[in-house]
Structures are given as structure tokens and as C-alpha cells.
Protein: Flagellar P-ring protein
Organism: Pseudovibrio axinellae
Amino acid sequence: MVPCWLKENNIVRLVGRSLRAFCFACFALFMVVESASALVRIKDIADLRGMRSNQLVGYGIVIGLNGSGDTMRNSPFTEQSLQSMLERMGVNVREASLNARNVAAVVVTAELPPFIGNGARIDVSVGSLGDAKSLQGGTLLVTPLMGADGNVYAVGQGSISISGFLAEGDASSLTQGVPTAGYVPNGALIEKTLPDYFSSMPQLVLELKNPDFKTAVRVTDAINAFSLNRYGMKLASELDYRSVQVQRPAGISSVRFVSQIEGLMVQPDTPARVVVDERTGTVVIGQNVRISTVAVTHGNLTVRVSERPEVSQPSPFSTQGETVVVPRTDIEVQQEDGQLQLIGGTDLQTLVRGLNRIGLKPSGIIAILQAIKQAGALQAALVVK
């Protein structure tokens, strides 16, 4: 017969073991989830060399404006463009003085995507070149869009869509947004494409968007692990901290091979950096930022100057004296108490808790970070905008 106390000890011991096993399982699951959340696809952190867009630009005319176009006196190029366009259409206006206010000269810009074919459509942006007040309701006429080599790659035309508006009267006006700039959705037809060298490239080069030595090595290792398992050989090698060279295996197209490696997951490494925007009071602290233990105090100094002018008048029925304004200035100085606080942390959470413990506004946090950097305790690059 087993004693009752022995049964109870066995039960307690069994429950303790189960609880410890459950805690270890939860911790392992947390570490796996945390590690998986930091993984990103190669296609999100790297681009293929050669897959780039090209800038297009052109000069055009917008018509159909409701009296908000260019004035011919202040924008002579608009009058010259209008005359040239009408002459090409068989209308002779050389001796006439044009005074139309429903025409505006614009600059048209667009991006030519890679691997785009003839007849495809792209969006174009339109911006006023003269003194037009608004492009609302206007229509862009046929505008050739040229590249840096001077060749025409697209032709734009269509109705302009703007996000702002202009309403004015004789005494006041109201403007919202930018009514002198807009875009034409699908407003350009591709007439000429660039040569496609992608399918014949024997090797591919991946360029990191955020160059880093460790990230380049991790991308190389991920591709080699996949290629060794799939093709029986290592195909990737790092060139520098920005580029990774990948050999294309025989018997497979470049498109299919890129689709296989761009989905591989890697964990990018980021440098320790603190970005400060003094205009908006924004502070962004990277994950790897460390601060050596320092003592910080911060007290706000407020100086308030108030003007209260007073009027001094002579006595009633007085024949001498005049009414004058006497200035009165009040100056008030207020300085808040500051207490020394220890700030330091081996991880981002500890650092944030230390800064929050002082209870500062963004301007105060910016000042403290700059002072800590000057003291040599901020182990990160401080970028001030």
C-alpha cells in the first residue's frame, strides 16, 4: 500500500515537469515566430541589375481650360507653340495677335518600365510651364516623349486629372492642393522599346537596396543552399557589399530561375542608426542602436514677453498736454526642474523605456540624443534632417 504523501509528491513532481516542458515549448515557439517575422524575401531587398526604368520627358500644350490658362504676354512660348500647331493644321495665324486664355504650355514626364512592349500604356505627369492658374478640365494634345538619347519612345495624350482646385472672385480666392499639376492615367502609348538582353544573360547580378556586407553574405548562402539542393551545385558568389552574382544553370530560362530564387527568405542586417527630423519632431531609432550608460538631466527654459501698451491722457479741460501711448513690457522667465536619470541599454526596448522615464517631448528627445552623441555614448550613426 502506497502512502498518501508519496502519491501527492509524485503528482506535484509530474505537474512540475509538465509545466516546465510547456514553458520550454512556448519559449521555443516564440523564438521561431520572432525569427520568422524578421525574414524577408530576396525580391524585397534586392533588384536585378539591368531591370530599371528610364525617364521620358516632352513639351506639350493643354487646351480646353476655362479661362485659367497662360497669358500670351507673360508666356510667349505658349503663343509660339499655338501658332506652330495651327500652321501644321493649315491655319495661318502668323499676323494675328492671339489672346486665348484656355491654352497652357506644360512639361510632360513619364517612366518607361523595363520589358514593356509596343502598344502598351503608361501614366504620364503634367506640370504647367507658364503662368496658368489651373489645369482643371484640360486636355493634353499629342506630345512626343523622348529619352535621354533624344529618341521618341512614347506619345502622350488625354484628359488631365488634378487633385486640387482653384475658386476665385473679385475680392478673394481659394486654392486647395496644386491645381497646376496633374496626371493622365494610361495617357501614353509606347511606340519604341529598348533591347531585351535579359533572356541571353549568362549570369545575373542582384543589387541590394540597402548595401551591407552581412546581408550580401546571407543572400549568397540562401541561394547556394537552394541551388545545391535543387541543381547539385553552388551558383552564387558575393562581389561586394552591394552585389551578388548568380550563375544561371543550363536548361532553364532566366525568368523561371529568377522566380525560384526571388522567393527565398533571408534575414537582412541593418546598421545602427538614429534618424532625427527636427522640422516635424520625428525620431526613428534602429533596432541595433546601443547607448552606453550615461546620466542625463533636461529642464525646459521658457521666456515669455508680453506687450501691454497703455494710453496716457491729459487732465480734463487742460489746455496743455496730448494723448500718448506708453509701452508696457512684462518679461517672465520660467525654468522647470530637471532630475538626473540613468539611460543605457543593451537592446531597443530598454533604451525606449529609459527615454520614456524622463517624460520628454520629441524636441527634448532630439536634444538629448544629440548631446549623447557628442559625449560619445551613442553607439550609432546620428542622421539629422
Summary: The longest strand covers residues 54-63. The mean pLDDT is 78.
